[in-house]
Amino acid sequence: MRFILEQDVNRLLVKAESFLLKHEAENNLLLGLLGRMAEGEDMGSVFGYGEDYDRIRIVFLHTKGNRIILSHDTVWTDEEAAELAHLVQTLTPNLPGVIGPVQQANQFARAWQQLYGKQIKVHMNQFIYQLDTVKDAGVARGEMRAANNDDFTLLRDWLVRFGEVTGEDMTEERADIVIGRLITQKRMYVWMVDGDIVSMAGCSRESRNGIVINAVFTPEEQQRKGYAQGLVAALSEKLLHEGKQFCCLFTNADDPGPNKLYQKMGYRCVAESSAIDFQ
């Protein structure tokens, strides 16, 4: 396999988008971030692809401070994983980790460990879910509404707590940016009961036919009342009604509660993924 570093995200999409769209839901992270970059967002990125005889076999993307992302539907050898690791290390020697299909992410992580002596640790095993039709919205009291600027502080604080629960590095500064962007773009929603916000969920990383639901959080005192199910189902239904063919989301594969909830709603698992940290 020959690895190519790209400098122009639009040129990469012309070359590789059809490859990524073959497994659109599974590649939602790559497609969504590349789409934002194509719209002009600067992420301090390193990106490219691997090919054989002009046939794309893998797409990779590293945004500043984050794990490198590997595309799904990739089969490669340990030697090819080591080749990519060496190429990436010359540009981002302090790479914090990798996320991608389980086997390929582990191949890359082992290569990084052998080449550079880093310890590797699985941060989270994940399921990637796709929903085409909402089957069960639940019967929770309340209703969904779009978040507004008056909700900013509460939702920012909840996003920090969400990061603590999931083990992601979500500083208050970063949460400010994320929540501010989602509210401005009308992509942050809350579930209201008797005038109070009891749950939140966002949507982002839009691809050609799908969109990702994320940042689903309900504080402990409001859990086990069906609010998250009501909100995610309502938001999924809204996005489908507006023209998306599917919604997708990531879950912690080792946490059975949310997985059962999303399956009940109509989400089906389409892939497994692994997020691995380098220490």
Automatic annotation (TrEMBL):
Gene Ontology MF annotations: acyltransferase activity, transferring groups other than amino-acyl groups
Coiled coil (residue ranges): none
Descriptive protein name: N-acetyltransferase domain-containing protein
Domain of life of the native organism: Bacteria
Residue intervals of the N-acetyltransferase domain: 142-279
